Amino acid sequence: MTKPLPIRSPLDSKSLGPKDYSYTNPLKASGDDYPCKGYANDTFVSQEVYVQGSSYNVEIEGNAVHGGGSCQLALTYNRGQSFKVLKSIEGGCGVNKEWTFEIPKDAPPGEALFAWTWFNKVGNREMYMNCAMVTIGDANIHASRLSRRWGVQRATHDQAFQSLPELFIANVNGEGKCVTIEGEDVAFPLPGPNLVGKSDTKGYKCYENATFLGLKAH
Fold first, then answer.
1. Which domain of life is it from (predicted)?
2. What is the model's pTM?
């Protein structure tokens, strides 16, 4: 992911911390570096400001497209303990390098991590994940003013945002113990309100229950 720049990106000039020069690598099958390649708790340095109700682009680079596949865009406000899906794309990920997404009008303001995940169609069964530190809301509003403005509405907005589906996880020994199926595009069980494409294959097998499956084993 090159826009927004992910945590520890070699292209990031804002952060003075360590850099990851193997950013095209997938997550470990053990799940040891899920989420965000293990960088979710790095010192927060915002790369972008996203305003609720506005649209933005995510840009991806890389030559190994692995036959395409399916991907999701998501936000977390708790450093990756849970992600809420903004958009799901079934098929063509890895081939297409740019996608448009919208920040929900009810997304709470504050510090967040924006995540892009990708399940390749051809090749090893892997999960790719990049996360970027972003600010939701007007960066020019002082935190105390932001809190007062949202104080009355916060509970309602939080509830609406939390109704979005959880991020699909596979190939990383995580919740659901899911694995993807080579040669098939993943059809996300809970893609959320913004779905691009429609896979004619299921694309995965899970051995346990998981919230992102709708609490049903698949």
1. Eukaryota
2. 0.90
Helix 154-162 vs helix 143-151: crossing angle, to nearest 10:
80
pLDDT at 106 over 90: yes
Residue 111 falls inside a structural domain: yes
Q: What is the rounded CA–CA span in Å between residue 63 and residue 56?
A: 23
Residue 178 within a domain: yes
Q: What is the pLDDT of residues 23-68, one digit of tens each?
A: 999 999 999 999 999 999 999 999 999 999 999 999 998 777 878 9
φ, ψ for residue 196, nearest 5 deg? -110, 130
